[in-house]
Amino acid sequence: MDQWHCRPKTLSVNNCLKELRAERSWSQADLAAALAVSRQTVNAIEKGRYDPSLPLAFTISQLFGRRIEEIFFP
Questions:
Q1: Range 19-41 average pLDDT
Q2: Which residues, 6 or more positions from 42, have their beta carbon under 8 angstroms from its beta carbon?
Q3: CA 3 – CA 70 distance, rounded (Å)
Q4: Once rounded to an integer, what is the mean pLDDT over residues 43-62?
Q5: What is the mean pLDDT of residues 31-36?
Q6: Cβ contact 31:21 at 8 Å
Q7: Percent with pLDDT over 70 in the chain
Q8: b/e map of 56-68 (b: 16 or more CB within 10 Å)?
Q9: Burial of 42 (0-12, 13-18, 19+ CB in 10 A)
Q10: What CA–CA distance (Å, rounded) separates 62 from 11?
Q11: How far apart are CA 17 and CA 51, in angstroms?
Q12: Euclidean distance between CA atoms 68 and 39, whole angstroms
């Protein structure tokens, strides 16, 4: 591979969604219903297998009363 050729690295996004959900004693299904997504989507976001869309991230931040940067971080 040419030394000047570089591939974009994927940025893995971590989050504290599970902790925020637990503080409210919400199940994944409870959070999914509040966000109008599937429980599997919530699970995938919590495990870092899926990064939410920007509109979904805004909805999550509004739901928990936190800035996006307080919930999602590199």
A1: 98
A2: 17, 21, 28, 31, 32, 35
A3: 37
A4: 97
A5: 98
A6: yes
A7: 84
A8: bbebbbeebeeee
A9: buried
A10: 24
A11: 12
A12: 20
